[in-house]
Structures are given as C-alpha cells and as structure tokens.
Amino acid sequence: MTKKVKNAAEALMRCLENEGIKYIFGHPGGAAIPIFDALYDSTIELILTRHEQGATHMADGYARASGKIGVALVTSGPGATNTITGLLTAQMDSVPLLVLAGQTNTGNLGKDAFQEADVFGITVPVVKHSYLVKNPNDIPRVIKEAIHIATTGRPGPVLLDLPKNVMEIMEFTAELEAKIDLPGYSYPAEGHIDDVKKMATYLNKSKKPVILAGHGAMISGAESELMTLAEKIDAPVISTLMGKGVFPENHRLSLGMLGMHGTAYANKAVEFCDLIISIGSRWDDRITPANIKRFCPDAVKLHIDIDQAEINKIVTPDASVVGNAKCILKQLIPEVTQQTHQSWNKTLNQYRKKYPLSYKKHGGLKAQHVIESFYHHTSGNAITTTDVGQHQMWAAQFYKNHRTNCWISSGGAGTMGFGMPSAIGAQLACPSETVIAFVGDGGFQMTLPELSTAVIHKLPIKIVILDNKYLGMVRQWQGLFYDNRLSGVDLEGSPDFVKLAAAYHMKGFRIKRGADVDKIVKAALDYNDGPCIVHAEVAKEDNVFPMIPAGGSVEDMIIDPPKTKLAKPKGST
C-alpha cells in the first residue's frame, strides 16, 4: 500500500504528480474547493487564470508547444461550461487536454442544484472521452486511462466530472498506481503492408507529385521521415495551416501553405499535379472545394491517417493507409524509388517567381511588414501563436516556420481569443524560447484579462496587436461578396493598448509608421523582464490575398486585389 492520503482529492493530485504533470491552469469555485485544497500541498504549480476559457487555451498552448498533455481545473456549472470553447478548439485540432471539472454533490445531481450543469452530457460532442467519477477508488485508474486516451492515437481532450462529496471522501483504499483497463480502445501504428506497397506503386509512376503535410504528420513526430521521402522522390511539399513547420518552409522543396489563403504556387501545384499524397491531413473545407470533383481532377489521391473515420470522408483516395504517419512513412520509404522531377519543380519555381507573396508598401502601416520584421529579427526561430482572422493568415504567410510545434493556432474551430492565452501556456512549456502572439484587436479583447496571468508570472511573451479597428476577415468577405454592406465589424472605441499595458504594469510599444517597425520590433524582442504589448496601428482596409472564395476551387483563386467588385461566388451563403 502506498502512503496514505487524506481524501480522494489528494489522491487525485498524487496521481497527477505520478504522471509528471507540472502545471495546472485553473480558476476556483465552490464545488472545486476540495481539489484546490489538495493542490495547495502539491508539487504541481497552479497557474491562476482570470477566466476558465483562458485556462483551457493556456493548457492547449502548453500541450502543443511541449508535446505533453495540458491540464485545466475549473469549478461546476458556469465554470465547466466556460471550458467548452477550449474543448472544441482542442478536439478540432487533435490536442491532448485534460479538464478537471468540479461538480455538485452526487445526491444533488439532476435536482437543479446551485451551479449544477450536466457537463458530461453538454461536452459529449467536443471531447474524445468523458468520466463522471462517483467512486473515489476509481481515481487512479481513471487518471491513468484519461491521460492515455488523450495522448494516444488521434489525440484529443478528456473531461473528468468530479462531484464535491466524492472528492472529500476520506475512506480511500485504492493503490495510487493503477493499470489501464480499456478493452475497447485501440489505435493503429504500422499500416497494412499491402496498402503501403500499393501506395508506393502510385508514387513510383508519378511525374508531378505533391506531398501534403498535415498536423497528423507533426503529432506523430514524422518530420525526419517526411524530409527523407520528399528528397528521395524529389517532390514539392505543401502544408495545411496546422501542418506549418513539420517541413521547413525555407527548404527548396517547400511551397508553403495551400488553401483559401495559401501561396499561389502551392495552390498551382495542387491544380496541376498528377498525384497528391496527404500525410495526416483531413482534406478540410479550407483546402478543398464544395464540389470535390473540382479538386485535383486529374490526380491520383493518396491518404495516410491514423483516424479511420477520415478516410473517404471528404476525398475518395485511390490508395489509403490507416496508422501512425511516422510508422507508415518508415514502411513506405524503402518501397519508393529514387526519383528526380526537374521539369515539374522548375515549373513550380516559375510560379513561385511569378506569384510571390507581396504587399504594397504605401498606404499606411502594413500588418505584413510588422510580421515580416519579427520573422527577420528572429530568423524564424520563435514560437508563434495567433488568434483567428486576417492577422492569422498574414502570420501564416509571412512568418515562416522551420521547426515542429512552433506554430500554435486555432485551425478547425477558428477560436478568437486563443492567441494570447495559448502563448502563456507555450512560454511556460518552453521558458527559454521566444514566444510571439500575433493577435487582432477583436480577438485579443475576448481574453485580455489573462494579461494579469502573464504579468504575475513575468512571462516574456510578445503580444503583437495588429489593430485595424475592424473584425478584418468578416469585413473582407462583406466587402468582396456582400456589396460592401459592412455589418457588425466596426471596432472603433477599442482601448489605447499601450495605456492598457500600463494599467496592467506591462511594457507597451506603439508602431504607427513603417519607418519605425524594425526599431520597435527589436526593442520588444530585447525586452525580457515580463510580457510586453506591441500596438501596431495598421491600415484599416487591407485584404488578405491570395484568396480562394469559400467553396471555390484553385481555378477561382484571386491573386491580386480585384479592380472591380466581385460577384457573390456560387454556392456561398
């Protein structure tokens, strides 16, 4: 028998300590007091947040940057329901998260007790798995299983609903070390060798191949195998938004990101390739058209994914392999022949020269200029987080990523307010790294109280607010496709963010002119006594290009700002 614990809440903490948990991000409340009391004597450090959504985003950023599970702790009722946005964000982007939610006493369940919510039922669509713990002796097994489920196969969030009276029970008799008992849970590693060989046959015949690297390739740690495959078959590599960095974006074979706001040359590669192999990508609607027949119509399509449910969901592949991307690439590489595709790569390099990422240098301060300066002064070595919108796409375009787990952005859910809290988690995960949060004035204001958390812990994150006084991406769509009928997008009245920084006892920098960008960017990067805000007052009505209208295909790509107002694209709503 291990050392006796005083109650189930202390057993919970001891089990988390045994699993190597270093931080818990959370906000207390009545139903969770026994757990917070146990945390008082724990070796785990509590990172007190100002809102439960902030706690989940911090845990998310910690998980993405570290490759470990992130843990959040909240109270019942509204405390738990405030985590739903963070759970959805983690679920959509396959991030291992453990949310511990306090709950009313078991005797009050179903009686509309104070701060009672059916958190188990409410969160079913946005978690990988849930537990309602009614027997304290189940805690060691549940913790072990929850972390295993969250971190293996296709990762995702797991919720533990923890009634207050269960956490206070003192008759705790179970061993703190438990075995996993999940007879119905399994996940593939290597793929079926016949499927792998079939895929290799297609690759060996291709004259114009393209490799599409998704987040699954990064999660599996397949960056080395991806490099080996790309160089062996001399194939250009494009990435999804979530796959940025799994293949170095400064490599000769990298074409950057594809999709709605991807590079024109990445999208041209997709348009004219004769084969595309997706490694850990979902073929989501930001890279494929509504009419899937218009996507690579003449190309062989290959798909590697650990989640069987993703195969045939959007694209019907000519060959597919289900399993861990790293394991499958190790199987695949010996089966493919050494190849050169000089003509194909020459054509794509011509597109690269013809359609470079660019922006006009006049007409006010440009968001792209600010992002590009941060990239230049960090040589692409920082961890970057973002909110969602125009600034996110400009950051994806102009801050190139050359390492894995250094691009942290909400892809599937598109969660505004994600950037700054996730930067806090990333900085705690990687204290020696430079962490930059590129945020918009809209998204930043959704979670700005978390500035207190960054200040208290003296985290040297750089919060770059690209302030155009608009909800920029919605304004762009309204301008292009809705006759410029701007509705609900004007953010005039936002605070002076440099004065806001002072109110939070932070360093604040302001950029108004392009001539000042490099000087202030360098000053912000040199400041490491705590967090700082860089308030960049950028041009109000710049748009993100290239752009493929929603539901459109590569053929519909707008490379330059249109000279005349565009018609509403077919199939859009």
Brief account:
The protein is of the alpha/beta class.
State the strand order across the main sheet. 2-1-3-4-6-5
Categorize the overall geometry.
globular
Largest sheet: 6 strands, parallel
Radius of gyration: 24 Å
State the share of residues found in helices, binned by percent. 25-40%
Number of alpha- plus pi-helical segments: 22
What is the beta-strand fraction? 15-25%
Any low-confidence stretches, pLDDT <50, length ≥5?
Answer: 564-573
| Oligomer type | single chain
Mean pLDDT: 95
| Number of β-strand runs | 18
User: From the helix content, strand content and strand pairing, which structural class follows?
Assistant: alpha/beta
In whole angstroms, the N-to-C terminal distance is 62 Å
Structure description:
It is a single chain. The protein is of the alpha/beta class and 573 residues long. It is 35% helix and 15% strand. The strands form three sheets. A six-stranded parallel β-sheet has the order 2-1-3-4-6-5, sandwiched between helices. A six-stranded parallel β-sheet has the order 9-8-7-10-11-12, sandwiched between helices. Strand 5 (129-132), helix 7 (139-151) and strand 6 form a beta-alpha-beta unit. Helix 15 (367-378) runs parallel beside helix 16.
